[in-house]
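User: Please fill in residues for this 258-position structure.
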């Protein structure tokens, strides 16, 4: 039994300014958000690519878009119409938890994605599998995507179930049910985990003061972040930063010795 060949994918980070006139191409294209937003029209249907939604542009589909503010998008050009993932009748799709996880990796590992064909191919295959799988009710999926996008955009501010539910377009009870079903968590357990993960990432990747990192991810001060990390991960910000620096130094030494 022959295994279907994986589609060849050209993957790139792109930024846009102003309006791009109506055009088409003979291959499928997937546009995913990294930062900012884009107003786009595909075959007469208007929509937006933002933190909650991406778009697949089918071969031959006439499309135009407008992006006026600072933005970054992850764009995949597939090699043939036969490789187009199944998205039923819609060309817009929700950024669900699985796709959001892939985008998080792309955001922090963009250099590796662009420089390593095997990594880019593996990442793209995972994305196409996400888009091809059976999906829950479209309205519920979109609601969860809007909730997750709102949380991402306001992670450094106080968050309430009411505000998240309003952004998602559902009741607070429905919000909790969505998180229980799809995230196996509550909204605030998810927020706590995301804040700690984001803090750990910033501690390792940047030289920002710990107090500033705490505020960026939604903690009142450095003490609050330290308490949360010790309670949930049995670590302190200073220890995590030192471990990241030591790992980077060891990696640099191995490169020099190679």
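Assistant: Residues filled in for all 258 positions:
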């Amino acid at each position: 039994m022959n295994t279907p060949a994986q589609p060849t994918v050209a993957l790139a980070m792109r930024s846009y300014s102003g309006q791009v006139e109506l055009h088409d191409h003979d291959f499928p294209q997937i546009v995913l958000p990294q930062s900012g937003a884009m107003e786009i029209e595909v075959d007469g249907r208007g929509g937006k690519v933002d933190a909650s939604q991406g778009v697949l542009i089918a071969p031959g589909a006439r499309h135009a878009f407008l992006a006026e503010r600072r933005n970054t998008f992850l764009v995949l050009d597939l090699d043939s119409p036969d490789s187009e993932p199944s998205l039923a009748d819609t060309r817009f799709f929700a950024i669900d938890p699985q796709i959001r996880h892939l985008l998080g990796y792309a955001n922090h590992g963009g250099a590796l994605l662009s420089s390593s064909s095997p990594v880019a191919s593996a990442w793209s295959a995972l994305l196409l599998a996400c888009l091809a799988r059976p999906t829950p009710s479209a309205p519920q999926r979109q609601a969860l995507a809007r909730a997750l996008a709102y949380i991402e955009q306001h992670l450094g501010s106080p968050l309430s179930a009411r505000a998240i539910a309003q952004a998602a377009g559902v009741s607070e009870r429905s919000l909790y049910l969505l998180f229980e079903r799809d995230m196996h968590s509550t909204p605030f357990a998810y927020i706590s985990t995301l804040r700690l993960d984001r803090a750990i990432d910033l501690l390792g990747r940047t030289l920002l003061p710990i107090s500033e990192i705490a505020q960026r991810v939604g903690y009142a001060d450095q003490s609050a972040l330290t308490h949360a990390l010790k309670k949930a991960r049995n670590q302190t910000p200073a220890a995590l930063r030192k471990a990241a620096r030591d790992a980077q130094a060891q990696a640099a030494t191995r490169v020099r010795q190679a």
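For context: The chain has a mean pLDDT of 85.
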